From TrEMBL:
InterPro entries: Glc/Gal-6P_isomerase, GlcN6P_deaminase-like, Glucosamine6P_isomerase, Glucosamine6P_isomerase_CS, NagB/RpiA_transferase-like. Residues 22-218 form the Glucosamine/galactosamine-6-phosphate isomerase domain. This is Glucosamine/galactosamine-6-phosphate isomerase domain-containing protein. Pfam families: Glucosamine_iso. One of its GO terms (biological process) is carbohydrate metabolic process.
Length: 237
């Protein structure tokens, strides 16, 4: 594991954007799975600023949404809506380069990834409960590939999702499981802010356990963790 502690969120975002651009600039098809959420927002702004300013071949990058939450009466799920707004539309990414994950195709998605040459880079955040992608404590197993979790009004997952979107949650979440993520060539985990410090300590220094799903990422041979000083403040080393 490579651990990078940056001075602040802006520096974290700059470093993360650099890593994505470095991977993206390789002269072959590159398969990227990028997170939505609050942590990467500035990273995506930087990517848009840089790529709009230069001649850059975007056609070799293919994007895989590693989790998706269906929304009632919405064509796109929660993750795709965010990525479209923050990255795909501002950069003019063509539909043919966006590999949608949803409840219709999730059972074949691991095969599709393998047929495309595997994932080159997965960029993830971490929840305060230790989840990564859609792998929440109590819902995931380290043995899972891409899988589906049903959502029903009144259950804990529904309540959690209902707070995260102005739309009404649908009936399922689909997500890359730990096995799908660990099969990728490179993983990048980012976290910022004091509120992430306790779970970062558990994930990076505690036992590898399904109670803290992100702890399993330490088993990957090419994991980079990028933190600001606040998120890293409780680490022993």
């Amino acid at each position: 594991m490579k651990l990078l502690v940056t001075e602040d969120y802006e520096t974290l975002s700059q470093v993360t954007a650099d890593l994505i651009l470095l991977k993206w600039s390789e002269n072959h098809r590159v398969n990227l799975a990028l997170t939505a959420g609050s942590s990467p927002k500035r990273t995506y702004e930087i990517l848009v600023e840089r790529l709009r300013a230069v001649q850059f071949d975007q056609s070799l990058a293919h994007f895989y949404n590693f989790d998706e939450i269906s929304l009632k009466d919405q064509a796109d799920g929660l993750t795709m809506q965010a990525l479209m707004q923050e990255l795909f539309q501002p950069l003019g990414i063509e539909d043919k380069n966006i590999e949608v994950l949803d409840a219709e195709n999730y059972q074949d998605y691991d095969y599709q990834i393998a047929e495309a040459g595997g994932l080159d880079l997965v960029l993830m955040g971490i929840g305060e409960d230790g989840h990564f992608c859609g792998n929440l404590p109590g819902f995931t197993s380290f043995d899972y590939g891409v899988y589906r979790v049903p959502i029903a009004p009144g259950d804990d997952l529904y309540q959690l999702l209902d707070q995260a979107t102005p739309h009404t949650p649908g009936t399922e979440m689909v997500t890359f499981g730990p096995q799908t993520v660990l099969a990728a060539k490179e993983l990048v985990l980012i976290a910022n802010g004091k509120k992430k410090a306790a779970i970062i300590k558990q994930a990076l220094e505690g036992p590898i356990t399904e109670d803290v799903p992100a702890s399993v990422l330490r088993l990957h041979p090419n994991l980079t963790v990028i933190l600001d000083q606040e998120a890293a403040s409780e680490l022993t080393e």
